[in-house]
């Protein structure tokens, strides 16, 4: 009888949305999971605290290492120590709008950080042992050249983030072709969850509207609400990241739902889950979202702070980007055909889950505020 040895995975960006779901997923599969966390002045491990294990006990299967994608020697040392079977490179400065403000840092971490990892694998002679997943992105398509976008659609990046990720995409392909490394790009379209960072559009909306419903904020200030995105659930997408590394041959895959909606539609759904019907009026930067009706949900008013006629959504040009990606729609046919992957959670179900999560948090904050605790929950960051 052969005994299957336990696999070891290393995740950069383990403290992020995807990293936390992927770590849970791999632990369930029996992996030993190592994650790289950044040093910060405050704790930044909230998304993985529930899977933390005491490092003093024998057989702990979840281990965190301090590190940074900008530090070659640190990455090399961690790889040498961990000797991973699989590396998932999810770490990145991942905010598109922020990349216009910090373009050089974004290039260093998102582009050169990927090269540093690949070089470390090679330097340590791990090419035949270690499989590599690169978190590529639908932002590569930018100014779209074809609808829907698939693996063969030409790239046209529209932000420093996307340009940096384009380097990372091609250096991953190059190391596969040049050195025979098992390396894949997952070209993932937007995916969200209650763990999504609070300044990405879906979470900003669900959290902002829940706060407004509970009287903690008064208005949601948005950028381009005509923007169209193909949104899926992060849990479905991390499963696919793992599947890509289990094939005989490394390949790149588009991961998407194949359905797109506008940001405005996502705002309307989120309001509906709070029992609020919104009416949009006006054009361009003068467009506003007005409360048209308020209903109970399961016999309860979830937005007690609102009344019909309140303006709760406004446009703020500060949130427009110097160059926008107006529309993204993925074609996941290859992933479906070759890997049998289909997303299990619809965008509507995901929106409901996110609103319920943020409403619970807003209620807790409203209670604390009522009892005199000084808390700030602004969505304007
Ligand atoms: P998050 O922003 O939630 O997480 C990013 C992670 O990277 C965090 O753990 C962050 O650490 C870490 N990180 C940031 N800078 C560095 C650095 N210099 N060194 C090491 N780690 C760093 O992103 P997501 O989980 O949403 O996305 C995961 C990856 O997938 C990213 O690379 C993103 O660009 C890409 N992607 C995401 C999509 C999406 O829709 N979510 C779609 C397509 C691609 P900290 O917690 O300390 O900030
Ligand atoms: P994106 O996600 O740029 O697609 O990148 P984000 O949620 O930030 O924006 C989606 C769209 O919404 C528009 N928008 C706003 N966006 C934000 N953040 N805040 C606003 O107030 C606002 N108003 C309108 C944006 O202009 C955009 O069109 C995400 C990140 O996770 C990347 O790391 C990843 O690679 C891509 O998804 C796929």
From TrEMBL:
UniProt xrefs under InterPro entries: GDP_Man_deHydtase, NAD(P)-bd_dom, NAD(P)-bd_dom_sf
Catalytic reaction(s) noted: GDP-alpha-D-mannose = GDP-4-dehydro-alpha-D-rhamnose + H2O
Transmembrane segments: none
A Pfam family the protein falls into: GDP_Man_Dehyd
Cofactor(s) listed: NADP(+)
The keyword Cytoplasm is assigned to this record: no
GO molecular function: GDP-mannose 4,6-dehydratase activity
Protein role: Catalyzes the conversion of GDP-D-mannose to GDP-4-dehydro-6-deoxy-D-mannose.
Entry's family note: Belongs to the NAD(P)-dependent epimerase/dehydratase family. GDP-mannose 4,6-dehydratase subfamily.
Protein name per the record: GDP-mannose 4,6-dehydratase
Lineage: Bacteria, Pseudomonadati, Pseudomonadota, Betaproteobacteria, Rhodocyclales
């Amino acid at each position: 009888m052969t005994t299957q040895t336990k696999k070891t995975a290393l995740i950069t960006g383990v403290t992020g949305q995807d990293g936390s779901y992927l770590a849970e997923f791999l632990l369930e599969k029996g992996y030993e999971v190592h994650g790289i966390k950044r040093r910060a002045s405050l704790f930044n491990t909230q998304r993985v605290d529930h899977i933390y294990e005491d490092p003093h006990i024998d057989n702990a299967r979840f281990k965190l290492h301090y590190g940074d994608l900008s530090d070659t020697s640190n990455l090399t040392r961690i790889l040498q120590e961990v000797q991973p079977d699989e590396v998932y490179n999810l770490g990145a400065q991942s905010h598109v709008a922020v990349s216009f403000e910090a373009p050089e840092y974004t290039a260093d971490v998102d582009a050169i950080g990927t090269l540093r990892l690949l070089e470390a694998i090679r330097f340590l002679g791990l090419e035949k042992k270690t499989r590599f997943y690169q978190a590529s992105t639908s932002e590569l398509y930018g100014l779209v050249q074809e609808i829907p976008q698939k693996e063969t659609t030409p790239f046209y990046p529209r932000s420093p983030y996307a340009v940096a990720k384009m380097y990372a995409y091609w250096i991953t392909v190059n190391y596969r072709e040049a050195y025979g490394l098992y390396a894949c790009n997952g070209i993932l379209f937007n995916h969200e969850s209650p763990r999504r960072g609070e300044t990405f559009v879906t979470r900003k909306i669900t959290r902002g509207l829940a706060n407004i419903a509970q009287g903690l904020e008064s208005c949601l200030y948005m950028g381009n609400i005509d923007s169209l995105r193909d949104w899926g659930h992060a849990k479905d997408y991390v499963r696919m990241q793992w599947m890509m590394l289990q094939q005989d041959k490394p390949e790149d895959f588009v991961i998407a739902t194949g359905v797109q909606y506008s940001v405005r539609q996502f705002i309307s759904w989120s309001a509906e889950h709070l029992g609020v019907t919104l009416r949009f009026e006006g054009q361009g930067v003068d467009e506003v979202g007005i409360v048209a009706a308020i209903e109970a949900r399961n016999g309860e008013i979830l937005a007690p702070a609102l009344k019909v006629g309140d303006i709760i959504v406004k446009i703020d040009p500060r949130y427009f980007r110097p160059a926008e990606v107006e529309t993204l729609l993925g074609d996941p046919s290859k992933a479906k055909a070759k890997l049998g992957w289909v997303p299990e959670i619809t965008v509507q179900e995901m929106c409901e889950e996110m609103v319920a999560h943020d409403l619970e948090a807003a209620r807790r904050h409203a209670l604390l505020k009522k009892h005199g605790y000084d808390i700030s929950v602004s969505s304007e960051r």
